Amino acid sequence: MSPSLSERLPHSHLFTEILEGGVQIISNKYLSYGPWVFWQDITVCAPQCNGRCFGTSPRDCCHIECAAGCKGPLDVDCFVSACRHFNDSGSCVPQCPQTLIYNKQTFQMETNPNAKYQYGSICVSQCPTHFVVDGSSCVSACPRDKTEVERGGQKQCEPCSGLCPKVCEGTGAEHRQTVDSSNIDSFINCTTIQGSLHFLPMSLNTVRHGQDDFKNIPPLDAKKLEVFRTVREITGLYILNIQSWPKELSDLSVFSGLTTIQGRSLFKRFSLIVMRIPTLTSLGLRSLREISDGSVYISQNPNLCYHHTVRWAQLFRGTRARNNEIKDNRPQAECVADSRVCDPLCSDSGCWGPGPDQCLSCRNYSRDGTCVASCNFYTGNPREFSGPDGKCVVCHPECQPQDERVTCTGPGADECVVCAKLKDGPHCVSSCPSGVNDGQRGLIFKYANKEGHCKPCHINCTQGCTGPGLRDCFETARLAVSR
User: Fold this and answer.
1) Quick check: 108 and 129 in contact, CB under 8 A?
2) Which EC number(s) does UniProt give (predicted)?
3) Which CATH number applies to 100-159?
């Protein structure tokens, strides 16, 4: 032991326990007070204390959340805030105040206004700058399957609905004039295109005629265009301009997920251009619901049908006058004679192509983007109800399917006609609450009675119960109370 340590050791008044091993102090000629230390007091705790205590009595045990000794029995008495799990404003706790707590009045898990987040081993009410909240933790970046959003002034990670948003550069610049084999992979997993998308003969001719000798660009495989199925929006200042297309594709269904074309900066007043594609028989833009600005130019597509059924005015936004040019495509009479008409389940708003999944809107109901005659109100699985927009929505999984009557009146667990398993207040549940936090440093335990309703356990039950009385507590809890 060094001389400097010999000077400090007598002042180590917080040194009160050794969890494992013995003591050896030799060859310290300047050490004083060593013979007066009663080492047995430091190394021995009552068996009930699990090696952590501030005295030898069974009543002198440290709080279970203390990691390295204590000066008293409470969770605030742990030495230098050395906690087994987390430090919450000086108290050692098994977890930080959770983001969701059980509301005894509404029988639901609700947002905890006093929630804190794990920042290392410390509980904080707000994550530090440049950190975001992921569940109950502060993290430097969201995981790959989540996206960053702001809620109430706090940046949070939320699960993505499908692919996480990804903004990609469009075409039109000198170095990137059109989609071709040299840039097609840059559109993988893109959800938003910032700029135009041009498909010009100078690029897609390579599909038909081989390599582009002028720019030495190899042919573009038509299958590569499938990357555009993830695109939801063409934003920024530009347009969708299709003047060349692979002959093996009869529609533009690779853009079946596209919902919006903003078109703030137009090409000769147009934001959607489709022209001179002889193999095109339908547009297939089944999700397109908004053209924010600009008009439509669809011309010289000799086999194109269905476009004449679309009520384009329903897609336009703003007050700018629109002057569409839709001409020199297959005559409407020929399309009708060839049965190239909208599905009977489509409304009068028109369609993008054949089948009930190409309707702009439905005559009756819709399920997952496809028009249907009826929802699964009384038969079929899963049972459904109709939302205000005519969409078939699945009942909550805790609803018991009913025969010859509706199963639910809405999407919630409190809107079931009959519960499939149990009921907690007005909500159908798969199991009764067990050990859920109530936001008051207490845990809620309930049991299911004969009617399948969740009822509170006795207040002294700490592990759950089978009935309302103290004797109905699970064995470990009852033994702890009886001691």
Assistant:
1) no
2) 2.7.10.1
3) 2.10.220.10
Q: What is the pLDDT of residues 64-123, one digit of tens each?
A: 999 888 999 999 999 876 899 999 999 999 889 988 889 888 888 888 888 999 999 999
Structure confidence at residue 394 (pLDDT): 97
CATH class of 3-93: mainly beta
Q: Which of 168, 280, 183 is nearest to 233 (CA)?
A: 168
Q: Both ends of the chain: CA-CA distance in Å?
A: 46
- Quickly name the fold that domain 431-482 has: 2.10.220
Going through 268-320 in order, the beta strands assigned E by DSSP cover 270-275, 290-291, 295-299
Give the length of the chain.
483
Give which of 325, 222, 234 is closest to 279, Cα–Cα. Answer: 222
Q: Do domains 3-93 and 431-482 have the same CATH topology?
A: yes
Dihedral sign (CA 435, 436, 437, 443):
negative
Using the CB atoms, write b or e for 227-265: b if 16+ within 10 Å: bbebbbbbbbebbbbbbbbbeebbbbbbbbbbebbbbee
The β-bridge relationship of strands 132-134 and 100-103 is unpaired
Q: Is 272 in contact with 291 (CB distance < 8 Å)?
A: yes
Hey, what CATH class is 167-341 in?
Answer: alpha beta
- Consecutive H or E run containing 391: none
In three-state secondary structure terms, 367 is: strand
pTM of the shown model:
0.74
